[in-house]
Amino acid sequence: MIRYLFNKMLLSMNKRYDYDVSYMQDILQTDMAAFLKFMGFQTMSSHSGNLPPGPLFAARLRAIIWDDCGPCTQLVANMALEAKVSPEIVRAIITGDLSKLPADIALVVQFTELVLAHNPEADDLREEILALWGQKGLITLSFCISSARVYPALKYTLGYGKACSKVIVNDSSLAPTRQSALSERQQNAY
Question: pTM of this prediction?
């Protein structure tokens, strides 16, 4: 009975976001204890703390783009739009176009990429983030960045991460760029 209810929840997610939930259904059908642990992880990954939606989804999108080539990125883009982040902002985050982003969102895009690259320049931006949102905001960003990376790794490990695709944001088809904000920051340093 509990598997049935969880599967209904997954099918609802599939319908709501047009997202393939097969890998989660596989976990559910194979190992209930593993699925329950996965659901516990969902609590961490959905934490939003005191961050506004724009910076929150900037971290989630840039982190997911680092490891994904389409479906997971599309899911997070859809969630950002659902959270009322404007399509223009979502497109600029996906393409890494810092010039089209408000300063706080551009800061998070750069910080996320520096963190993912293990670049020590993240330390300077961390101070700016602390000044804006405090330690709670930094913790929220750490959850966004680290948890977003689990989904593509999980899908690829289970054999479900094979499809690359463009991301659609309000009828605009985009190819996510990886590390563009990081390279732009490095170019501006010279």
Answer: 0.87
> In 3D, which of 93, 119, 95 has the Cα closest to residue 104?
93
Residues in Cβ contact with 29 at an 8 Å cutoff, skipping those fewer than 6 apart: 3
Q: Which domains does the chain have, with CATH numbers?
A: 1-39 (no CATH), 48-188 (1.20.1290)
CA–CA distance, 33 with 56 (Å, rounded to integer): 30
Dihedral class, residue 118 (left if φ above 0, else alpha if ψ from -120 to 50, else beta): left
Contacts of 115 (CB under 8 A, 6+ apart): 122, 145
Residue 10 has pLDDT above 80, yes or no: yes
Strand partners, 173: 168
Instruction: Tell me the C-alpha distance between 44 and 22, whole Å.
Output: 21
CA atoms within 13 A on the CB side of 92: 20
pLDDT in tens, 157-182: 999 886 677 788 887 887 777 655 55
